[in-house]
Amino acid sequence: MQPFPTIAEAGALIAAKKMSPVELTRMCLDRVEQLDPQLHSFLLVTEDRAMADASAAEARMMLAALKGPLDGIPIGHKDIYNTAGIRTTAHSRLLEHNVPGEDSVVGQKWAAAGTVLMGKLATHEFAIGGPSFDLPWPPARNPWNTDHFTSGSSSGTGAAVAAGLVLGGTGSDTGGSIRGPAALCGIAGIKPTYGLSSRRGVLPLSQTLDHTGPLAWTVQDCALLLQAMAGHDPLDPASANRPVANFTADLDKGAKGLRIGVIRHFHEIDNPVSPATLKGIEDALDIYRAQGAEIRDVTLSPMMDYNAPGWLILTAEAYAVHEPWLKERFNDYGELMRDRLAFGALMSASDYVQALRRRRVLCLEMRDAMADLDILITASAPAEAPKIHEVPKWAMFEKPNFTMPFNLTGQPALSVCTGYGVGGLPVSMQIVGKPFAEATVLRAGHAYEMATKWRSKRPAISTALTG
User: Fold this and answer.
1) Rounded to an integer, what distance in angstroms lies between the CA atom of residue 269 and that of residue 162?
2) Is pLDDT of 132 > 60?
């Protein structure tokens, strides 16, 4: 059996009865047992559930009755996604013994597609407080070097996918929590358009910025996972009531004809990136040019103009969610979580309203800038992963980040690995599309991956197990 099949590869092999879902799941569980004591990517391993799901998938395989390309695929859920009868903690002492009565909508959809639930994955506390060392569970570690940060808050998903413990997993993204771990862990992750996939049954952070989306080893795998989670949910007030596109139909069209805008000042001036990150972006642009894409520079407001209202809105809305617990159980939160959220108590209604007004102006600016473009490109992280013990408490406020602008506007945004920099750590770029143009974003990301060699390299910690 291939030690690291992608979802697309495993799905095809299972459909051809050349790969056993039970053996694939057993291989992943064995890898969890051997590697996760160093990675801490899982908060809970659901071995019995996984083997039952895999056995059911194998039975369908033998009857030629598979549910689709995800049937028999081992996945994990970020531990803010409710799972019926399975502990869901948000990596917090406050929910240490919380057992929901039903699955999140995304969890229901993935289960209906035949996925194999391996367990619940680490997060930053309530998707904002991390990396924290004063919680009931330690933070996840980067499999490329366990002294280094995964980014967050979908930290466990990023680490588990990169190390091959699962083939894909869920994330949430409020200010970059899918794209950050994808960037630092060297995988693919997409924040879809606001409202494309349901958030019902996912613990909230910021109602007007929260998105649900997938992380996986490849862009193609992200497309398959997103296909199974997208769709209207009438009980999610932010859910978009519109047909879902086919995200894999155009994947192989390449970049020919794409009109690509490069927001150079984001990654060259507003927050200058590392040499390897810049080289990865420039090399990607060369690949797109060679494939027949049109490349031009785009100028927007400074990146901090997008970050300032974004973080104000996030902090105010998150404080509103947590205010009762902050008043009653302040010290039960980890230090990073409580300090970051307490900030929201100091914000006025005027601050919040002005941020919303500024958001509208910036959304219109972005719309106009993309009027005759298909995608935008910039960095998704400023550099290779820092050491985990050196991440500042206020890192999100010290410099503008590359992901928040597209939470503010709600556009689809994908992070893909563009190589390796200092210490062999991954670097990345971000591909951004127009609202509900996920198919174009994924097409561009897949075209890049197919033209490069980065997807053939896995972290040494995981390859040592397979020889």
Assistant:
1) 31
2) yes
Q: Give dist(CA 267, CA 387) in Å, integer.
A: 21
Spatial distance between the Cα atoms of 348 and 329, rounded to a whole number of angstroms: 23
Q: For residue 78, indicate whether it is catalytic.
A: yes
Q: Which residue has the higher pLDDT, 394 or 102?
A: 102
From 41, 78, 155, 198, the catalytic residue? 78
Say what the alpha-carbon torsion angle 88, 92, 94, 99 is, to the nearest 10 degrees. 10
Q: Which residue has the tokens 């999140």?
A: 104
Nearest to 396 by CA among 122, 152, 35: 152
- The whole-chain average pLDDT of the chain stands at 97
Q: What is the DSSP letter of 159?
A: H
In DSSP notation, 288-301 reads HHHHT-EEEE---S
- Checking DSSP bridges between strand 74-78 and strand 42-45, what pairing results, if any? unpaired
Residue showing tokens 């991956």: 449
Taking Cα atoms as reference points, which of 276, 266, 205 lies closest to residue 399? 266
pLDDT above 90 as % of the chain: 97
Q: How confident is the model at residue 467 (pLDDT cuts 50, 70, 90)?
A: low
Amino acid 466: pLDDT: 65
Given this model, what pLDDT does residue 1 score? Answer: 85
CA distances from 32 to 38, 279, 368 (A): 10, 34, 47
User: Which numeric CATH code is attached to 7-466?
Assistant: 3.90.1300.10
Taking the whole predicted model, whether its pTM rises above 0.85 is answered as yes
Query: Which listed residue (153, 172, 197, 239) is catalytic?
Result: 153
For residue 84, give every residue at least 6 positions away whose Cβ sits within 8 Å of its Cβ, in sequence order, or none.
100, 101, 102, 103
Contacts of 26 (CB under 8 A, 6+ apart): 51, 54
Span 413-427, average pLDDT = 98
- Residue for token digits 């506390």? 125
Q: Rounded to the nearest 5°, which phi and psi values hold at 368?
A: -65, -40
279 is catalytic: no
**Distances in Å between the alpha carbon of 446 and those of 144, 227, 233, 327, 459?**
23, 15, 28, 47, 21
Active site residue 348: no
The mean per-residue pLDDT over the stretch 181-185 comes to 98
Q: Which of 151, 172, 177, 415 is catalytic?
A: 177
List phi, psi (to 5°) of 191: -90, 110
